[in-house]
Amino acid sequence: MTLENKNLAQNIYLILAALFIASLVASNLIFQKFFYWEPFGLYRFEISVGILPYPITFLITDILSEIYGKKKANQVVIAGIFASFFSMLIILVADLAPAIDNSPINDGTFHQVFGLSPLAVLASMLAYLFAQFIDIRIFHFWKKLTKGKHLWLRNNFSTFASQFIDTFTVVLLLSIFGILPWSIFTSLLISGFLFKVIIAALDTPILYGIVYLFRRKFNLKVGEEILD
User: H-type helices in the chain, by residue range?
Assistant: First the structure.
């Protein structure tokens, strides 16, 4: 690989890492708003808006795992953990800082919107830690087993398993912390998991397209990764 291509590959890696971290932090900040979605009137999903950017993180780790390898994917996951905890610290400080009398947002409103974020981040990070590392491990297990072929298989198998673990763990912890009532535990678990499964299935063509562009640009064979 030429020096120009190496620099390009590194720049793309940094962009993907930035998108991953931004999606992760955003999902932790907006989680308190819930919405419903009824595709074709077949099923009513009742889920947090925090789930919307979350599938992006799993798509990105699959791209990184396929093109850059397990080590690079794990590095981005760890960076995401630090970014989330750092954002939690900033929120805690901001919540403690007293608002002035003519502040557009008073202390009560700010606390109502962001005050529960630290607990949510903790719950999300514990779930995320298990889910992302399991996703990467399963992805590479199937990649090795299929000798780099059948990208759809490892993409969906790894994502389905990790998304169930993520959804179950985060809903369980939020219920234990008292942030969510136990009465909606089952509905949130089913809705959250099914929504993520649908998104994971829909993003498979996107993953194929991106991987194809990478292989064409950097002359990679099937299963070949960009080495440091």
Answer: 3-29, 54-67, 70-96, 107-114, 117-145, 151-176, 185-202, 204-218
